[in-house]
Write a structure and sequence with these properties.
There is one protein chain. The protein is about 60% helix and about 10% strand. It has a 5-stranded antiparallel sheet with strand order 4-3-2-1-5. The protein folds into 2 domains: about 240 residues, MetI-like (MetI-like fold); about 100 residues, no CATH class. The protein is an alpha+beta fold.
Length: about 375
């Protein structure tokens, strides 16, 4: 019989040889990196990337516009946590097409999405009488490029996608953690002790299993109120059942092995036998299921956000982004809904492929 260390090394070697396993791991690592450093990578580093410019809404990828950036009177000076939480918006941004100087005053022509010629306007937020046109251009104007275009509110779509990755990754981690925290102990207790304890836990499992997952999540979300944290709890509380069933089945088989009998003969407590002898040897299928649950959690969160029960505005969520722009699919701006949809598809597919690769790598018959 191979030791745990030897089995682990063989499993890692098999996983490295799996093309789809390595590729999916790289994709997941890429999305995790984006989630951790979203505000550092995002062109719009304001909190939730919520800088709106209605006059340039629904623009195509690669859209370039001239922007007037006027500092506000805010005293916000930045924080060491801006890389994580985003920064407060301290500039007022105005898209424009043309600047001119008239009687010592700088005038600008606002950008119009319909290419209409709008009248020139004055800048009320800053005194331009002492500035020349060239100095004003140098100090207060810039050219912004929106690599993925803008959404229907004129926000940078790329920034929203990057920050939305944090929502999907975090919901997956928290939901899987909650499911493991509940499912493993209940499944282990039911499988190890059997009898009435097993019957009671199985009754709870079957009742929970019989309720449609999405309906349960919606019910919990409505009961606890809409919000980011509610989604974590709701999704996690619906995923523990499958973990508990698998752990229970593995525990029923494993408790009859000779090393468990030897542990009982040595006087070890049941808790020690379960936690230190049986569970480490039956975690392989749990790991595979957790990868699938991670993908399922991302899909459930996207569905809840699409229904308006997930992360609430202005928090960017891939599901809510599809909800805001799904009607554009029949127009010439389908990318507004397709881009977040592709992001969801790539992340979910990566976790499913990683789960399949882990299943093959952890198969005892092929690692022995």
């Amino acid at each position: 019989m191979l030791s745990n260390a030897s089995t682990g090394n063989l499993t890692l070697q098999k996983l490295r040889k799996s093309f789809w396993g390595v590729l999916s791991f790289c994709v997941i690592a890429f999305f995790i990196f984006i989630a951790l450093f979203a505000y550092v990578l995002a062109p719009d580093s304001s909190r939730y990337a919520n800088q709106m410019h209605i006059s340039i809404h629904s623009q195509p990828p690669g859209f370039v516009v001239d922007m007037i950036e006027i500092p506000t009177s805010s005293t916000y000076s930045g924080s060491i946590w801006d890389w994580w939480n985003g920064s407060e918006s301290v500039n007022t941004e105005i898209p424009f097409t043309t600047l001119k100087e008239s009687n010592g005053t700088i005038l600008y022509q606002p950008y119009d999405v319909d290419n209409q010629v709008l009248p020139f306007q004055t800048l009320d937020l800053i005194n331009t009488e002492e500035l020349s046109l060239s100095r004003f251009r140098e100090n207060y104007t810039s050219q912004k490029t929106f690599l993925l275009g803008t959404d229907k509110y004129g926000r940078d779509l790329l920034s929203r996608i990057l920050i939305g990755a944090r929502v999907s990754i975090s919901i997956g981690f928290v939901a899987v953690f909650i499911s493991l925290l509940i499912g493993i102990p209940l499944g282990a207790i039911a499988g190890y002790y059997g009898g009435k304890t097993d019957a009671a836990i199985m009754w709870l499992i079957n009742v929970t299993w019989s309720i449609p997952t999405l309906l349960m999540v919606i019910a919990i979300s409505i009961a606890l109120g809409k919000g980011f944290l509610t989604v974590f709890i709701a999704v996690g509380l619906t995923m523990w059942v499958e973990i508990a069933r698998v752990v229970r089945g593995q525990m029923i088989v494993a408790k009859e092995y000779q090393y468990v009998t030897a542990a009982r003969a040595l006087g070890f407590t049941n808790l020690r036998i379960i936690a230190r002898h049986i569970l480490p040897n039956i975690l392989a299928p749990v790991i595979v299921i957790s990868a699938a649950n991670f993908a399922a959690a991302i899909l459930i969160e996207a569905g809840l956000s699409f229904l308006g029960l997930g992360a609430q505005p202005p928090i960017p969520s891939w599901g809510s982004m599809i909800k805001d722009h799904y009607q554009y699919i029949i127009l010439d701006k389908a990318y507004l809904a397709i881009v977040p949809g592709v992001a969801i598809m790539l992340l979910v597919m990566a976790f499913m492929l990683l789960g399949n690769s882990l299943r093959d790598a952890l198969d005892v018959k092929t690692t022995s």
